[in-house]
Design a protein that fits this description.
Largest interface: A-B, 34 and 39 residues
Number of strands of chain B: 13
Number of helices of chain A: 21
Distance between the termini of chain B: 14 Å
Oligomer: heterodimer
Strand content of chain A: 15-25%
Low-confidence stretches of chain A: 62-88, 129-165
Mean pLDDT of chain B: 93
Mean pLDDT of chain A: 85
Structural class of chain A: alpha/beta
Strand content of chain B: 15-25%
Strand order of the largest sheet of chain B: 3-2-1-4-5-6-7
């Protein structure tokens, strides 16, 4: 690897902490990491995880590199884990819930006072959470937990290497994070890495459902996720979106809130359903495969709209078509808010035995189900993409789908679209596909002929194009305003400027930023009208101690020179540096520093 | 011509804080500089005002409730009726007045009825009456009441305010107003002479200490400044424009809220309901003049998120004189329309545009006005804003003596 070769870091915190079958976002993270490691020369793409309060390099033994293999066998230990009384929330959400709960149970009259107290305490709690004591406690807990895990884990557990004390990243590196990022507290770190360490941050937007449709989520998550997307935009150089719809939704939200207009790029998710080397099927799946069935692959939750399929089946049964109807198979875990629906399905004598559920399905079983299904259905009320539609089409299946959100982007004109709020229409289309063999064949042939499957390699390739553009993008320029970005020992910081106050000493020092290798020009601008004759030393440093340039400059109060910078330097860095600073020692006279321009040459 | 002028109002002006107080204080100063003898008297419109010479204490809520069933947000109307009709209260305020005025200037319509009775009973009709309009009061009151009352109740209360206001407009010998918009409206309501004397600003000094005081609040971060009293329209405007998610500022930037609006916003749950808003707000609250001048001097931009109310905003004049970038609604620029389109003045009337403009302007370099631009803003200084008052009062006074 070349000395100044930038590294592409993939944040694998989500998959490294995942113990269940690899689906959805976890699959995206795993597949992209795997494919990008294949596309780039060895050593360019590395993995990192969030540990405590920083990113550390993550290395995994070769045999467990692809968690796909892990997903092909059921995790029997998982079923033995005792279930928690309530689902675990991220720390921020948990604190919000505590605050919300406290406000809810105290008397109405005291709420304004309590609200004010919580607002004031918020910052104090935040300080405690970042305090050294808290960190020590977390590290201790983390170590204790790691030692417990070590005694119980198998050989495929990740090995954390954290030998270096300094930052994992060097200026110009890319950090790509496409996992469940809202579940982790590292968004602020993205922002810091971007500003202080010149790391380019690449993230992903899957969908804005919690913001647009909070009613389909566990609690009122709209504010939390609005906050998340605002932060995501301000801490990213590039946000990948998994559909045009998600990109549009994200941009709308950013416009509405006045958030940073981050660059976005749509990339296609892969839709190839993994093939098992040894397809082992459970008795339950084997039994399903013996009869015709319609398949719906999705977690069972309100937004996915299993309701409309149940209603359609109920209508068809009312019409006396019960005996001819294929089974309707739901593949996915039951989630929140579907208890009544599942009860209806269980008790409805008309649809009795027609609607089946199965979960913990392996990749091999899923593929078999897709391959044998009469058709696949997807009546979701909103999607950011709709991977099961793509997977079904990739295997040549007829798809009946809702027309909402991004779904038309997945299936184009190969899918029959139906209003997700219209059970009668769903019943009619299901019946037509079931009963009209000729129609069935026409639709199926059309899909098999025209659908262009998207592989994960294709997805990674389109990502690579963008990463290559980003990595080769040269540094152009940056303006520092010393009053905000620098410190001063003998001057006064007045908004953006620093003004001397008649004392000799360090007038300014900063910005202590990371810089990529390259040639630079730096211009120091002052307010010429404020000058009082004297002189000063201006020095450029690396790591605050390695002097790279120094000039003694006479402070000339002749303002004929006002159109020229007060000082100017040109210099070259052979390799990326973590800490660049410029310092001014005022020896005599008066000086008001206005701005500093750093220009890449 | 040396005139005796009595100014009647419902707030003390010893230490002016809110816009109404500042305006009256400046008018008093201006009249005195013009050589007039000025006496200030009135009734404290709220128990939160400190006692002041010439002012009756705030009537108890029980007293006001005898006038209006529910005086909440209608205290000024109740005071108007009480001091006009109740002999005890009338006499009490009348005793506060020490001079014999040639002209009585009633700021806002609340004590107009009292003034009329006073002229009739105590001055033998030998004084004329100026109505100092700060707003189209009934419209402003209705917009505030809408937050708290159902439509019928709002209509009924609005009617009472309108009655008082129209009485002052039609009965006054002269009217002083604060904006061109108000002037046009007033001239449609009455034949009385109306003069425009907009709200202005005083020049302020910036010292090392004032910068240090400001830095204590801002922690050297780049910030947008919002200066406002806790007057409900100010708070409403803030949430109208910054509610529903606030992404307009980076993590190292803040909106500093100076004035009592800060406390009202801090204690309002809407600040937490708008994503990221609470994290970007820094409450300065009531600050000294010195600190305020430091804040005005070090701010990157000044926001004027005002969505309701007539009249003119004192804070707009202050923002204009600061020479900083300004983001304002059209409503906030009322009375200062001539500045729209000038360097550094940005108008935004919808939440999305306001927030987008704020983000864009926070990323711009600091605003630097050239000398002619700077000079063009001198018309917002009080001495220029109030300059039409002297000839106007003299004209009215001459009518008095005729």
């Amino acid at each position: 690897m070349k000395k100044n070769q930038q590294t592409i870091w993939i944040n694998v915190t989500t998959s490294a902490n995942w113990n269940r079958p690899v689906v959805g976002i976890v699959r995206v993270e795993v597949e992209l990491k795997t494919q990008l490691q294949k596309l780039y020369p060895q050593g360019i793409v590395k993995e990192c995880v969030w540990l405590g309060d920083k990113f550390v390099e993550h290395t995994v033994k070769q045999e467990s590199l692809t968690t796909t293999a892990k997903s092909q066998t059921k995790d029997s230990t998982q079923e033995k884990e005792p279930s928690l009384l309530y689902p675990v929330l991220p720390r921020r959400a948990a604190l919000e819930m505590i605050a919300q709960g406290s406000l809810s149970i105290i008397p109405v009259k005291l709420r304004p006072i309590a609200s004010r107290f919580l607002f004031i305490s918020k910052h104090k709690i935040a300080r405690i959470l970042v305090s050294s004591t808290y960190h020590k406690a977390r590290i201790w807990i983390s170590k204790a937990s790691a030692s417990i895990q070590k005694t119980t884990s198998d050989s495929s557990q990740p090995v954390i290497s954290n030998k270096k004390q300094e930052s994992l990243f060097k200026a110009g590196d890319i950090l790509m994070s496409v996992g469940l990022d809202w579940e982790y507290p590292y968004l602020a770190e993205f922002s810091r890495l971007r500003e202080a360490e010149a790391v380019k941050i690449v993230t992903c937007c899957y969908d804005l459902i919690p913001v647009l449709f909070p009613q389909y989520c566990v609690s009122d998550v709209a504010t939390r996720f609005t906050r998340y997307f605002i932060d995501l935009a301000s801490s990213s150089d590039l946000v990948f979106c998994i559909s045009k719809q998600s990109e549009k939704d994200l941009k709308n939200l950013l416009n509405k809130t006045g958030a940073a207009q981050v660059k976005t790029k749509v990339f296609p998710l892969g839709d190839n359903v993994p093939e098992a080397k040894v397809p082992e099927l459970s008795d339950e799946i084997t039994a399903i495969l013996t009869e015709p069935f319609i398949l719906f692959v999705s977690t069972i939750e309100r937004r996915k709209n299993h309701q409309v399929l149940y209603q359609a089946y109920h209508l068809l049964c009312q019409q006396g078509k019960q005996a001819q109807l294929p089974k309707l198979v739901f593949v996915g875990m039951p989630g929140w808010g579907v208890g009544e629906l599942l009860k209806d399905i269980q008790l409805d004598p008309l649809t009795q035995g027609l609607i089946l559920q199965c979960n913990h399905v392996t990749d091999a079983e899923l593929r078999s189900l897709y391959e044998s299904a009469l058709c696949c259905v997807y009546p979701s009320l909103y999607e950011g993409w709709g991977l099961p539609v793509g997977e079904a089409l990739a295997l040549g299946k007829i798809v009946l789908s809702s027309d909402r959100g991004s779904l038309p982007e997945v299936g184009g004109d190969l899918v029959t679209y139906i209003d997700p709020w219209n059970p009668a229409e769903w019943a009619a289309q299901i019946w037509r596909v079931t009963a009209d063999v000729k129609y069935q064949k026409t639709l199926s042939d059309k899909v098999k002929l025209a659908y262009q499957s998207r592989s994960w390699q294709d997805a990674a390739q389109s990502i690579k194009v963008e990463l290559d553009t980003l990595i080769s993008k040269p540094f152009t320029s940056q303006t520092f305003y010393p009053g905000y970005d620098f410190t001063s020992e003998v001057g006064q910081r007045i908004g953006p400027i620093i003004q001397s106050k008649g004392k000799a000493g360090f007038l300014f020092s900063g910005p202590n930023t990371a810089m990529s290798a390259g040639k630079y020009n730096i211009k120091v601008w002052d307010q010429a009208s404020d000058r009082e004759p004297g002189n000063c030393n201006i020095s450029l440093y690396l790591d605050s101690s390695r002097l790279i340039k120094q000039k003694n400059i006479v402070i000339d109060s002749n303002i004929e020179n006002a159109t020229l910078p007060f000082a100017e330097f040109t210099f070259e860095l052979e390799e990326a540096e973590q800490d660049f600073s410029i310092k001014c020692e005022l020896i005599s006279g008066e000086l008001t520093l206005e701005r500093i321009n750093l220009i890449g040459l | 011509m040396k005139l005796n002028i009595l100014i009647l109002c419902t707030y003390p002006i010893d230490t002016p804080r809110h816009g109404g107080q500042i305006r009256v204080k400046k008018i008093v100063d201006y009249y005195r500089q013009a050589g007039f003898q000025v006496e200030v008297a009135g009734v404290l419109g709220s128990a939160s005002y400190p006692a002041s010479v010439g002012f009756d204490p705030s009537p108890s809520i029980n007293e006001l409730a005898k006038i209006l069933d529910n005086p909440f947000l209608m205290e000024d109307v109740a005071i108007a009726k009480l001091y006009k009709a109740n002999d005890k209260y009338f006499s009490s305020l009348a005793k506060q007045i020490k001079q014999v005025p040639d002209v009585i200037h009633v700021e806002q319509p609340w004590l107009f009825g009292f003034a009329q009775r006073y002229i009739k009973e105590k001055l033998n009709n030998r004084s004329k009456l100026i109505y100092g309009s700060q707003n189209i009061e009934y419209q402003l009151k209705a917009s505030i009441l809408k937050t708290y009352f159902i439509t019928d109740e709002v209509t009924q209360r609005e009617k009472q305010v309108k009655q008082l206001e129209m009485h002052a407009i039609t009965e006054a010998d002269g009217i002083v107003c604060v904006s061109q918009h108000d002037l046009e409206w007033l001239t449609q309501q009455t034949q009385t002479s109306v003069v425009l004397a907009p709200n202005g600003v005083s020049e302020w000094n910036v010292t090392e200490q004032s910068i240090d005081e400001a830095n204590q609040i801002t922690k050297h971060q780049k910030f947008a400044l919002f200066c406002a009293s806790g007057h409900p329209p100010n708070v409403k405007g803030f949430f109208d424009l910054f509610g529903d998610g606030f992404g307009a500022m980076n993590h190292n930037e803040k909106i500093v809220i100076a004035g009592s609006a800060g406390y009202a916003i801090e204690g309002d749950e809407r600040v937490h309901q708008s994503a990221k808003l609470a994290a970007r707000v820094a409450i300065a609250g009531l600050v000294s003049d010195s600190c305020l001048s430091g804040l005005l001097h070090t701010a990157h931009c000044i926001v004027l998120p005002i969505t309701q109310g007539g009249g003119t905003n004192l804070k707009t004049a202050e923002a204009l004189w600061s020479g900083k970038h300004i983001i304002a609604t059209t409503t906030a620029m009322r009375g200062f329309e001539t500045f729209i389109g000038q360097q550094g003045i940005n108008i935004a009337d919808t939440p999305a545009i306001f927030k987008q403009q704020l983000r864009e302007i926070m990323a711009r370099p600091p605003l630097v006005l050239n000398q002619p631009e700077r000079e063009s803003r001198a018309i917002v200084l009080w001495e220029q804003c109030l300059s039409p008052l002297s000839p106007f009062m003299t004209k009215i006074a001459q009518r008095v003596t005729q």
